[in-house]
Every structure is written in structure tokens, then in C-alpha cells.
Design goal:
The chain has 798 residues and is α/β, with parallel strands linked by helices. It contains 30 helices and 29 strands. Strands 13-19-18-17-14-15-16-29 form an eight-stranded mixed β-sheet, sandwiched between helices. Strands 3-2-1-4-5-6-28 form a seven-stranded mixed β-sheet, with helices on both faces. Strands 22-23-24-25 form a four-stranded antiparallel β-sheet, sandwiched between helices. The longest helix is centred in the N-terminal third of the chain and has 24 residues, at 158-181.
């Protein structure tokens, strides 16, 4: 076997796309995954997405509503470590698959419930569906459309991927907790949690309303206001599109020089983003820049930006990036035999480990391809509960992470681990993380951590870092290739100090290759790997922004990869090197798309030109006064929809007999449904469909996420945390996204001040008070000026 998870057995029994994606991530890294499908497959089993999302698995057919088949499923669970399902607890109880029943019968089993909204929210009784959640929670209005007003169907399935990531992180954290407590537990991650988990960068509540980004349409061209930052999509002189980002030391000035505005830009000493734009600079950055890009073709602009060390990438179709020289160099494109296309080319498993052979996925199985193996699979040795090694309150209690990173993605991965109980220590230079001037963005990535300031260019501070690493489980960073070695914190050096260390490196493009040294910032890699084309809709130009990006995805994947490595270490006793570039996570989160044998792009599904949906039965329809979303591809939901619109005979029509037939007759269905909704208000249509059991939601046309920050239920469920005395004053921020029934994580606190815990941490690693004073007096370490009261923050786009 290969991969860090080759010792884990996973049963996936859920008719939901996030469950398939979560199980794919586990299979991609060695887990033995059996997919339990209803006879004939789920409603999306014949979609092209199966070719990616079900690779590397077995498939067996069982109808879990049937007692005999349910007994067969329970036989599979005897020998399993992880059980992934998408049932609400009430539905699971009716089948004897609820948490208490599974805990009684399979005490070592980790149960992962990927639900719609969670048991403890006001939406707990609403039907499951990514589009439904996006409509109900206002995600469809988050970015807006450059082509029409109103909500926009999510072209990129960000909630699906987000929920899958949360499920995997929760599953692996519970497996780690099981090693301490001896027993499994139930883990829940909902679509609602996936939505808020991809929101903290741009959403918090602060008593004075400060934010680095303007509220409202976060894809708007002036969303950064007078913050000295430009990132966005621009059309070039040849009609093609690029994105660029002015982050990093001197990035704004360098970009302005390339664009011909250098003589009109003030010289800023220190972090550029700490100084607001003046009126002339604002006009250039938010208006004049668009015409400037029309002067040259895209490839010439990208060459000039790269020469000036400014981050820039082309906007491509999904899967087109698989042909890039960097992807080829790092082996991130794989070829699989395929019955429809002969050969397909997909993104490879995303995580790379030095000490574990990489998995070579097998093609997705035919439905029921392994039915004959059921008896053998059920005969695997039972997983047994063991005696507790110690009691823990949080799943990652006792794990220490030392984070040398800057900016968002790596920090966000560490923040997820911190929320689950890990002690995450952020190591900063005396100048601080370059993202510190962006208060809400910085807090989103760093909340709950401890902070130490060390000048690693001095031998004394480097020695302190070595002492810190000697007691750590994990080190993380995203320094450009070669810089960590120059600083003295490269893998070889730190592994010699601590052989059990997990060294997690999350660069932009990889540690080697033709693009390895380029700057990487979100959302450039997302546009490069196709998200803006996904969101634009078929036949349209790319949209300027979509929900979800590589910063979140790289943080999610890094957290999952670290947990994989930690679990592997439990078996081997050895540490490892893990690499998780933003390129890899972005490729993996567009894995529903692929290339055919001729290297032509094949969309797994595609948003239509109206940006209204991917299917007549999964889309938003315009009503007399707004929009209504439906998600009725399943047989029972379609029958309910047919009854609701007064056409019950449609359920027996051969054109619409099953999901596959309905997809072939998609245009006819849309023609039938459009006038029904157009003749009614959203409330009228909702009342008819909801009463009939046809899954639907009215699409909000205002943001919900800001409201959630002030909801009592969100605070009570720890999805929102409050700090009345943070360095930013009174704030509310998003907290826990994964929910455990035995060892709950508990998010708390806000981001640490620069040097907030320097004395405390140095004391923990053996320094005396006199030695600490000497390090501080000599400029080798630094402490916060104060640990109470507000700091001065001049950055606000509002």
C-alpha cells in the first residue's frame, strides 16, 4: 500500500457530493474506501464528476432502507475506522444508524455526518443541497454578477469542497482523539459550516466598523477602498484576461512602475498596506489601471510583472492548467484509462510526503463493481475500543505547532488546528507579519494562537527557535524556496533537532520547478485553475470573483495533510516532510473537470450562460418578484416537484423516468418549469413546492453572513466568538466549523499582539528571566508594548 492513510478503512454511504469528495481525499492518500451506493447509483452517479470524485474506491450496491442490506452495511462497519454519511440524526435514528446506536455497536468507529445546516441551528429542518444552502444563506449574492443583477448560482462548488474538507479534518482529528481516549465519536460538519468557514477573511463585526474590505459585493472593483492593495482581474490588449496582486514588500510600488504610474506614487517606508492611498493614487488604482492594461497583450504584462517580482497569472479554463510546465514538472497531472474518452488527464493526489510512497489512483469503479466482494469486506477484523491513554477535552490537545508563515493560507490552516485544541505558536520577525495591517483578515488567520517575536537573523534568536522546535510536533511555513535554509530553519536542520517532527511546507507552486520562485497570492491561482471561468457561465467572459479561493482551500488541505502525517507518525514513530502548494490544492478543488485524450477541456458540469444553474432541476428561476432555487434531481424530489406544479404525470413520463433521462431532457424540463415560476411570486412558489416536499429555497438578495455574527444561536454553538477587549476593541468573529460529541474543540480569543507571549514561551523552553531580558534588550526577541487596550489601526476600506 501507499499513502499516509493506508492503515485506515473508510465506508462512504451518502447520496451527497461532499461525501464523495471527502472519501476521494482520503482514498487519494491511501485509505481503503468502499462506496456504498443505492442500487443503480445515486442521482448524480452518471455525471462526469464520478470520474474524479470516485477514483480509487470500491463500489457496492446496498439499499440501506432494506433491513437485509442494512445488516450488510453494519457488517462493513465492523471493520471500519471511519463512516461517512449525510443523514440528519432523526433520519439516521429511524434506520438504527444514529450516533447512540453506532456508539453502542461500534465503539471504535468515527462517524462523520455531513448535514445540511447542523442540529443546533434555526435551519435544521431545511432540505439538503448546496444550491439551496447558497440561496438560503445569501451566498448567491456574495459576489454579484457583471452580466445581470440579482443572485448568481455558484459555478464553482465551493460549499461542496468546503464541507468535504471539514469532514476530513474532523474525521482525522477524531481518529487522533481515539488514540488517546480509546473510542470513536460523532463528528458533524454542515453546508452552513462550510459557508462560514470560507467567510472569515472578509467578514467580522467590529464596534467601529473597521475592515480592510468594503461590505457588499466583494467582487466590486473598489472593494479595498484606500487600502494600498490591488488584486483583481483585468482585460488586456489582446482581449485575454489576467489577475495580479500587489502584496509583498514593495509590491504595490513595483506594480505601479510596470504600469507606468511610478512617478505619481508616493514612497512608503515600512509595510505598504499600513499607509492609505491618497486621492490621486486612489484614482489610479481603482479607475486608471483598467485602461492601462489595454496597452499590451496578456503574456507581455505577465512577463513584465514577473520580472518586477509582482504576482500575476493568466485566467484559464478549468483543467487547462494541467498542461502548464510547472504542473508537468511536479507530476501533478495523471492519466487514467476511461471507457468514454479512452484516456483522461486529471490532477494528481494533492499532498506530497517524503517518507511515504505517493498513491496512484485507480479509475472510478462501475456502480456495484465490487458487489461480489461484500462477504470478504465484511469479514475484515473488527475495530475494537481500547483502554484510554489519558482523558482529553479537545481532539488535538497535546499537539504543538510552530508556525513561521506569513499572510493567510498557512496561518488559516494553523487556526483550524488551534480551534481543535492544538497549541499553535506564531513566530514573527520584529517587523511582524505583512498582513498585520489588515485587521479582519489577520485576525481570521491568527485567532486563538500564541505569538513570539524572534529575529532569526541573529544566532541567539535562532537558538531559541531550535529549542522551540525541539518540543514541537509540527512546523509550518510558506517561505519562498531556499529562504528557510538560508535562515537556518530548513527541513534537514530541523529534522536533525527533532526526528519526530512533521515539517509542513506550503509554497505557492512547489519547492522546485520553473514557477517555484514566483510570488503567489489568492485569488490568482484560483483564476489560473479555472474558477473565474466556472463562475462566468458558458459563453460568457470570466467573472471577476467567485465564492471560495485557494487561501481557504490551501489552509483546509494543509490542516488535513498535517493530521494525516501525525497519524502516520503514530505507527512509524518517525517524522516526515509534507509539501502542500497552493497550486496543488487549487488543482484538487477543481478536480471535477479534466482533459480528454487530446488534451481538450471537459467540464464535469457547467454553469449556464444565464448564471442560473447547471441543470433544469438544480437552478434558480426568476419569479415575479425575485428568484427561487430548486434542487430536485432525485426521483422522490422530482415527483414532489411535478405534483407541486400541477403536473404529477411528469413523474411517469419516459422522458423523465430517472435522473439520467431527465438530464437528457434538460431543455424540455426548463421550458416546462420557467413559466410556472415566472407567473408567481417567490413566496407563492415556495409555499406550493415546500408543502409538496419539493426541495426549494427563496434566494436571498441581501447578505446573511454579517447577520450571523450577531445571532445568539451562533454564539451559543461556538460558531461565533466574542472578544470585548481585543487589540481591535470589541469584535465578533467566526469560530468553530467542526462539531464533536465527545471531545469538542472550542474556538476562543482573537489574534495575538506582536510579541504577546514572547516571555511566556521563552520561559517554557528553558530560558531564565535574566536570559529573556538579555534577548529582549539585545533586539533578539521582542515583547508586546502592551497586552491590553486597542492598537492604532489606520487601515479601513469603509
Amino acid at each position: 500500500m501507499s499513502g499516509p492513510l493506508d492503515h485506515l478503512v473508510v465506508i462512504e454511504a451518502a447520496q451527497s457530493m461532499p461525501a464523495a469528495i471527502a472519501a476521494m481525499l482520503l482514498a487519494d492518500h491511501g485509505a481503503d474506501v468502499t462506496k456504498v451506493e443505492p442500487r443503480g447509483g445515486a442521482y448524480f452517479a452518471h455525471d462526469l464528476t464520478r470520474k474524479s470524485w470516485d477514483r480509487g474506491k470500491r463500489s457496492v450496491e446496498l439499499d440501506i432502507a432494506d433491513a437485509a442490506d442494512r445488516a450488510a452495511l453494519r457488517g462493513l462497519l465492523e471493520g471500519a475506522d471511519i463512516f461517512i454519511h449525510a443523514m440528519e440524526e432523526k433520519a439516521a435514528a429511524a434506520l438504527g444508524l444514529d450516533a447512540p446506536s453506532l456508539k453502542r455497536d461500534f465503539p471504535a468507529l468515527v462517524v462523520v455526518a455531513l448535514t445540511a445546516y447542523g442540529q443546533d441551528t434555526p435551519f435544521a429542518d431545511r432540505p439538503y443541497g448546496e444550491s439551496l444552502a447558497a440561496a438560503l444563506l445569501g451566498t448567491m449574492i456574495d459576489k454579484g454578477s457583471p452580466f445581470r443583477p440579482g443572485p448568481v448560482y455558484l459555478g464553482h462548488p465551493a460549499l461542496h469542497y468546503g464541507q468535504a474538507f471539514l469532514g476530513v479534518i474532523g474525521a482525522l482529528a477524531a481518529v487522533r482523539a481515539r488514540r488517546e481516549t480509546g473510542t470513536g465519536q460523532r463528528v458533524e460538519a454542515s453546508l452552513l459550516d462550510a459557508m462560514i468557514a470560507q467567510s472569515p477573511m472578509n467578514n467580522w463585526w467590529q464596534e467601529d466598523g473597521i475592515s480592510y474590505i468594503k461590505k457588499g459585493d466583494s467582487g466590486a472593483v473598489d472593494r479595498f477602498g484606500k487600502t494600498r492593495l490591488i488584486t483583481g482581474m483585468f482585460e488586456c490588449g489582446d482581449g485575454r484576461f489576467l489577475q495580479f496582486h500587489t502584496g509583498g514588500p514593495g509590491g504595490f510600488r513595483a506594480a505601479m512602475e510596470v504600469l507606468g504610474f511610478g512617478d505619481r506614487i508616493q514612497v512608503v517606508k515600512g509595510p505598504e498596506m499600513a499607509t492609505p492611498l491618497n486621492d490621486e493614487e486612489y484614482q489610479i488604482a481603482r479607475v486608471g489601471i483598467f485602461d492601462a492594461f489595454k496597452a499590451k497583450p496578456r503574456d507581455e504584462w505577465i512577463r513584465l510583472f514577473h520580472a518586477a517580482d509582482v504576482a500575476a497569472l493568466p485566467v484559464l479554463e478549468p483543467a487547462e492548467v494541467l498542461l502548464d510546465d510547472q504542473v508537468d514538472y511536479v507530476g501533478q497531472r495523471i492519466a487514467l484509462p476511461d471507457p468514454d474518452f479512452g484516456t483522461i488527464h486529471q490532477a494528481a493526489p494533492a499532498l506530497i510526503y517524503a517518507g511515504v510512497e505517493r498513491v496512484s489512483p485507480t479509475p472510478a469503479p462501475a456502480i456495484g463493481a465490487h458487489n461480489a466482494d461484500l462477504a470478504a469486506l465484511a469479514a475484515r477484523p473488527a475495530r475494537m475500543a481500547t483502554a484510554a491513554r489519558r482523558a482529553i477535552r479537545k481532539p488535538l490537545e497535546g499537539i504543538r505547532v510552530v508556525d513561521f508563515s506569513s499572510f493567510f493560507a498557512v496561518g488559516y490552516g494553523g487556526r483550524l488546528l488551534s480551534d481543535l485544541g492544538a497549541d499553535v505558536i506564531k513566530v514573527e520577525t520584529p517587523d511582524g507579519d505583512q498582513m498585520r495591517p489588515l485587521p479582519d483578515c489577520f485576525d481570521a488567520a491568527q485567532r486563538g494562537k500564541r505569538d513570539i517575536v524572534l529575529n532569526l537573523k541573529t544566532p541567539e534568536a535562532l537558538e531559541a527557535a531550535y529549542r522551540l522546535v525541539a518540543e514541537a510536533d509540527v512546523v509550518t511555513h510558506n517561505l519562498r524556496p531556499g529562504k528557510a535554509d538560508k535562515l537556518g530553519i530548513g527541513y534537514e536542520k530541523l529534522a536533525s533537532i527533532n526526528p519526530k517532527l512533521i515539517y509542513a511546507y506550503m509554497p505557492g507552486y512547489g519547492s522546485k520547478g520553473p514557477k517555484a520562485l514566483l510570488k503567489s497570492f489568492a485569488p490568482l491561482v484560483s483564476g489560473w485553475t479555472g474558477l473565474l471561468r466556472e463562475g462566468g457561465g458558458e459563453g460568457n467572459p470570466p467573472t471577476r470573483s467567485v465564492f471560495g479561493n485557494e487561501d481557504y482551500n490551501n489552509g483546509f488541505l494543509a490542516a488535513a495533510g498535517i493530521l494525516m502525517a501525525l497519524d502516520r507518525r503514530e505507527l512509524t514513530g518517525k517524522g516526515d516532510y509534507m509539501e502542500c502548494p497552493q497550486l496543488h490544492s487549487s488543482l484538487w478543488t477543481t478536480s471535477e473537470h479534466f482533459l480528454d485524450a487530446d488534451h481538450k477541456v471537459v467540464y464535469g458540469f457547467r454553469l449556464d450562460k444565464d448564471q442560473a444553474g447547471i441543470n433544469a432541476l438544480d437552478r434558480i428561476y426568476r419569479t415575479r418578484d425575485g428568484w427561487l432555487c430548486i434542487a430536485c434531481r432525485q426521483d422522490e424530489r422530482f415527483a414532489a416537484l411535478a405534483a407541486a406544479i400541477g403536473r404529477p404525470e411528469l413523474a411517469a413520463d419516459p422522458r423523465f423516468a430517472d435522473p439520467r433521462a431527465r438530464s437528457r431532457s434538460d431543455a424540455a424540463l426548463q421550458e416546462l418549469l420557467t413559466p410556472f415560476f415566472a407567473a408567481r411570486t417567490s413566496a407563492e412558489a415556495f409555499a406550493l413546492l415546500d408543502a409538496a416536499g419539493a426541495a426549494c429555497e427563496i434566494a436571498r438578495e441581501t447578505s446573511w453572513v454579517q447577520e450571523a455574527l450577531l445571532e445568539d444561536w451562533a454564539f451559543a454553538s461556538n460558531r461565533v466568538v466574542e472578544d470585548k477587549d481585543s487589540m481591535y476593541g470589541h469584535v465578533r468573529t467566526f469560530g468553530s466549523f467542526i462539531h464533536f460529541d465527545e471531545t469538542p474543540g472550542f474556538a476562543q480569543g482573537t489574534a495575538p499582539r506582536l510579541g504577546h507571549h514572547t516571555r511566556e514561551i521563552l520561559g517554557e523552553i528553558g530560558y531564565s528571566p535574566a536570559e529573556i531580558d538579555a534577548l529582549i534588550a539585545g533586539g533578539k526577541a521582542m515583547v508586546a508594548r502592551s497586552v491590553t487596550g486597542r492598537i492604532d489601526s489606520r487601515v479601513s476600506a469603509a
